[in-house]
What we know:
Family: Belongs to the ABC transporter superfamily. ABCC family. Conjugate transporter (TC 3.A.1.208) subfamily.
Number of strands: 22
Subcellular location: Cell membrane
Strand content: 5-15%
Low-confidence stretches: 78-91, 147-165, 671-732
Number of helices: 50
Structural class: alpha/beta
Keywords: ATP-binding, Cell membrane, Membrane, Nucleotide-binding, Repeat, Translocase, Transmembrane, Transmembrane helix, Transport
Pfam families: ABC_membrane, ABC_tran
Strand order of the largest sheet: 6-7-8-4-9-10
Mean pLDDT: 76
Amino acid sequence: xxxxxxxxxxxxxxxxxxxxxxxxxxxxxxxxxxxxxxxxxxxxxxxxxxxxxxxxxxxxxxxxxxxxxxxxxxxxxxxxxxxxxxxxxxxxxxxxxxxxxxxxxxxxxxxxxxxxxxxxxxxxxxxxxxxxxxxxxxxxxxxxxxxxxxxxxxxxxxxxxxxxxxxxxxxxxxxxxxxxxxxxxxxxxxxxxxxxxxxxxxxxxxxxxxxxxxxxxxxxxxxxxxxxxxxxxxxxxxxxxxxxxxxxxxxxxxxxxxxxxxxxxxxxxxxxxxxxxxxxxxxxxxxxxxxxxxxxxxxxxxxxxxxxxxxxxxxxxxxxxxxxxxxxxxxxxxxxxxxxxxxxxxxxxxxxxxxxxxxxxxxxxxxxxxxxxxxxxxxxxxxxxxxxxxxxxxxxxxxxxxxxxxxxxxxxxxxxxxxxxxxxxxxxxxxxxxxxxxxxxxxxxxxxxxxxxxxxxxxxxxxxxxxxxxxxxxxxxxxxxxxxxxxxxxxxxxxxxxxxxxxxxxxxxxxxxxxxxxxxxxxxxxxxxxxxxxxxxxxxxxxxxxxxxxxxxxxxxxxxxxxxxxxxxxxxxxxxxxxxxxxxxxxxxxxxxxxxxxxxxxxxxxxxxxxxxxxxxxxxxxxxxxxxxxxxxxxxxxxxxxxxxxxxxxxxxxxxxxxxxxxxxxxxxxxxxxxxxxxxxxxxxxxxxxxxxxxxxxxxxxxxxxxxxxxxxxxxxxxxxxxxxxxxxxxxxxxxxxxxxxxxxxxxxxxxxxxxxxxxxxxxxxxxxxxxxxxxxxxxxxxxxxxxxxxxxxxxxxxxxxxxxxxxxxxxxxxxxxxxxxxxxxxxxxxxxxxxxxxxxxxxxxxxxxxxxxxxxxxxxxxxxxxxxxxxxxxxxxxxxxxxxxxxxxxxxxxxxxxxxxxxxxxxxxxxxxxxxxxxxxxxxxxxxxxxxxxxxxxxxxxxxxxxxxxxxxxxxxxxxxxxxxxxxxxxxxxxxxxxxxxxxxxxxxxxxxxxxxxxxxxxxxxxxxxxxxxxxxxxxxxxxxxxxxxxxxxxxxxxxxxxxxxxxxxxxxxxxxxxxxxxxxxxxxxxxxxxxxxxxxxxxxxxxxxxxxxxxxxxxxxxxxxxxxxxxxxxxxxxxxxxxxxxxxxxxxxxxxxxxxxxxxxxxxxxxxxxxxxxxxxxxxxxxxxxxxxxxxxxxxxxxxxxxxxxxxxxxxxxxxxxxxxxxxxxxxxxxxxxxxxxxxxxxxxxxxxxxxxxxxxxxxxxxxxxxxxxxxxxxxxxxxxxxxxxxxxxxxxxxxxxxxxxxxxxxxxxxxxxxxxxxx
Length: 1306
C-alpha cells in the first residue's frame, strides 16, 4: 500500500507526526483516498451475498410495492453520482447500485429495512466526515485569507491555543469513551433481549409440557402429585429455568472478565496483582456454599397444597367451624417457611456484603495496593496507578456481583429441573391397558382381568370375566368399596392391568360419580367441543330434564357456569354431565351412578328417556353402576360386585331364581315395600344415592339451588367479575400500598435501614476520597511515606463499609420478613372470614395466585428490590457529590439529564406496572385451567378431548406471554435510554475535567472520572430495581385487595353469656323467616314460621330449587336472614358468634370432603377426643373394620381430597364426625347418598339410636328414609307448601302424596 501511495504521488499511508504527535491532527491523503473509500464498499460487497441468501431462504412475507416516484428517487442519485477523483488509487465498484438492488430484493421479499444497509450508510457517513473536514478547512482558509484572519479562526476551530498541551487528545479519549460505552449498551441489551426471548420460549414450552403430562399421568401418580405442587411447577420452577437461560452465560463469561481485569492489573502493577486473585479465590467457594445451602430450603409446596384444600373445602370448614384449626396448620407451615427464609436471607446478606466488598478486599492489604507498596518502597501509588486500578476493580465488580446471582440461579434451576424431571417421570397410563377392536362381535370384553391402582400394589379387582354385546344395558351393584367404580375405571384404562385382556369396541362416553363441570357456558359444557345440531341438542335437553332449568337460568343455555358448577345444584350438575355424554352419540356409555343426585321423579324420567329400553341410548351399550333396585329388572345383565370380584352375573330374573346372595338382598329390602309390578306407578319406584366428591368452591345455595333469576341480576353478577378484573388496571400503584407495606415493616426497621444506608455510603465516600489524597501525595526521593497509616485507615474504612452493607441488607431482609408475615396472615384471615358469596365470584386460580406467586414476591422480590434501589440511590448521591466537588459545572449537565431521567422513569414505571398487572391477570386463567383439567382428567381422556384441551392451555399460556413479552422489551428500552444518559454524564465529566486540567489535581480527576463511569450502570439499576419494587408492590395491592371485601359476622362474641351446654333441648323456631341470596333477588325462603320441638325428627322434601338446603344454610348462618329470625332454645342465633353457633350444631353434608392428613386429623382437627372416642365413632359409622385393616390405622394418610378412599367411605367418615360432636341438633343433607342399601340401613339405624334424644332435620330425596319421622315439611318455591305427619300428608293426597306415588311408596 505504501508503494501504491508513492506511485500515485501521495503522502504515505500513515504518518504519526501528522496524525498523533501534533496539536492539529489529520489523516494522510493516501489513507483518506484508500481506506476511507474502500471500507464501506468492502463491507457491503462482502456481506451482501450472505444477506441475499438469507432473504432467499426466509419465508415469503408478501410484496411491498414502490411508487414510481420512490423508484426514481432511489435510482436517480446512483445514476447522477459524480465521477471519482482521478487521484484515487483504485475505483471501487459502485456500492450505490448494489444498495439499490438490495432494496428492491427486500421489497420483493416483504422486508422494509435491514441492519445491513443501515450499517452501510452509517459507515459511509462516518468515513466521509474526514474529507468533509478537509473541505470545510479549505473553505475557511479561502474566506479567512480574504479577511486576513486565518490563524485566529483556524485555532478557534481546532479548539486548542496551546500546541504542546494537545487538548484534543483529551477530547478524543472522552469521545471514544462515550462511543464505546454506547456500543457496549447496544450490544449488551441486544444480547439480553435474545436471552429473554429464548428464556420465555423455554418457559412456555415447559408449561405446555407439564400440562400435557397432566393429561397422561396415571391415577396413582396423580395422588402423589398434588395440584399445589403442579401449580408451583408452572409458576415458580418455569420462572427459575427462564432466569437460568438469561444469567447462565455469566458463569463462564465472569471468569474471562476477571482474568482480563487481572491481566491489565498485572500490566499496571506487576506481580502484586496476583495478591488480588487470592481474595477472589476465597470469595468464590464461600458464595458457592451459601448458594447451595439457600436452595435446600423450600417450604412453599406444603403450604400451597394445604391452601388449595382449604379453598376447596371452605364450605365444610364453615359448617364445622374448623377455620381456626386450619389457621394453625397453615401457621405452622408458614412459620417454617419464614424461618427458612430468614436463614436464607442472612446467608444472602453475607454473600452480598462479601461480593460488594470484593473491590475493597482486592485492593486492601495483603492484597493489591498493600502488597504493591510494601514489597518495594520505590513502588509509588500515583493517580494513574490508583485510578486505573480502581476503574479495573470497578469493572471487576460487575462480574463479581453477577456471579452470586448466576450461581444461585443455576442452583435453583438445577433443583427446579430435578422437580420437573421427577414429575415428568411419573407413571403414565399405558395405551395397551384397553384394546380397541372395531370389528369385535362383543362391545366390552374382560377375560381373566386383574387390576390395581399402582403397578406394585395389591389388586383391587381380581378374576373379572365378562362379555357385553352391543346394545345391552348392564347394571353393576354392590356394597361400598366392592369395586363398582373401579370396574368402570378398568374399562376406561385408568387402572393398571396386571393380567388378563380388556377390549372395547367403538367410542366411549363416561359419566363420573362426581359430576365434572367446566367453567364455561351451559351450552359449551354439553357440546364439549362438538358441533351444535339443533334438533338433537333439543332432544338431549328434554331427555335429561334440563328444559325447565333453562327457564330458571338467567341467560338460558348461554349462562356462564362457575368453577366446579358453583351456580348449579348437585342434580343439575349431574344432568349436565349426562347430557354431555348423550350428545356425543358414542358407542359405549359408562355411567357411574348418575341418578343418585336427582329427585325420584327426575331419576325415573331420565331412566325412561335416556338409559332405559326406550331411551335415546337404547341402541348403545350401557354399563350402569346403580343402587336403584327398581332399575335392575329392566337391565339385560346384572353384575354383583363383592370384594373386587364379580360374585354373581346374569339377568335380573336369573339371579332371583338362583336365590343366592343377590336374591336375599332384594327380598330383604323389598320386605316392607310393595313388590314391583307391571304398572307404570310401580316402575317408577327408585332409591336415589348421591355420588358427589370434593366440590372445590361450591358456593352459596342460591346458585346451587336455582332460584328464579332475572337477566338484570345476571348482569349484576357479571359486573362483579368485571369489577374484580378491572381493579387491576388503575393508572398507577397507589401510594397507600407503600404506606401499608412500610407500616407493617415498622418505624424501627425503617430508621435503622436509612441510617445504615447513609453510614455505608459515607464510609464509601471517605474510602474513595482517602484514595484520591493518597494519589495526590508527591513522592519524596522516589518514595512515599506512612504506608502503614494509609493502609490502616484504608482498611478501617473498607471494613466499616462492608459491615454497614451487611447490616443494611440484613435489616431490609428481616423487615421484609416481618411485613410478609403480617400480610400473609391478614390475607388468610380475610379469605377465611369472607362469606360464601365471596368464593362464588372469585376464581380459585386468583386465590391460589395470591397465596403462591404474590406472597412469594412479597417474601423475596420486594426486599431484594429495596436493597438494590436504596444501595444504588445512595451510590448515585455519592457520585453526584464527587462530581460536583471536582467539576461544579457538571451541575449544568446534571439538571437537564435529571429532568429527562425523571420523564423516562415515570413513563416507563407507569407502563411497566400496567404490563405487570396484565401479566398477573392473564396468569390466573392458566392456574384455573390446570385445576379444572386435573379434576376432570378421567372425563377428558374418556372422551378423547386431550388435543382440544391442550390447545386451550396453549392459548392461555400464549395470552400470558403476550403480556410478558412487551414487559421485558420495555425493560430493554429503558436500559438503553438510561445508559445513554449515563454515557452523556460520563462525556460531560470527562470534557469538563480536560477543560479544567490546570485547576484540578490528578487524584480528584481520577476520582471524578472513575465514578462517572459507574453512573451508566447505577442509573440503569436504580430504575430497574425501582420498577421491580413498583411491579412487585402490586402484589401488596392484590393481597390487600381482599381486606375491603364483605366479611361474615364475627366468629366469637367477646363477653358472650351463652351457656356452655347450649343448646340443651334443641328447640328450633323460625319466626316469619325470609332469606335472599343477595339483595334485590327473589326470596329463596319467605314467610317461614315453624316451631320444631326438641327431639323431633323432621323431614324436608321438595323439588329441585324449592328451598330445602336454604333452610340448612339459614340455620348455620351461611346466609344471613333478610327478615325474621331463627331461635334455638329461645336464643336468637343472629346475636351470637358464628363459631359459637356452628360448633354447637352438626351437619352431615351432601359432599363428603376430606383433607390431606391422617384419619385422626380429619375426624378431630382440634385433637380434643381420645382414641377410645374415635374408635367408638368409627364403629358406629361401620368403618372400624376398614380402619383396623389399614397398616397405620388412625394415622393412615388421606390423599388430597381423600381420593384414596371410596366415596361411600368418605361419607361414612362424615357420619363419624357427627357422632364425635354429638350435638343436640343434627342436620342431614342426603347423608347416606353414596352408600349401598345395606350400609344405608345400618346408618339409618345408627342415627335413630345415637341421635334419638336430638332434634334431627333431614333433607331427603329418598322418601322411604323419612317415612317414620314426626313431621314432613314440603317446600315449594321458598315457602312451606305442606307440613304434617307423613300419614296425614298421604291422606291429604297433596304434593307429598304425589312424590310418594312417583317413588312407589303408596
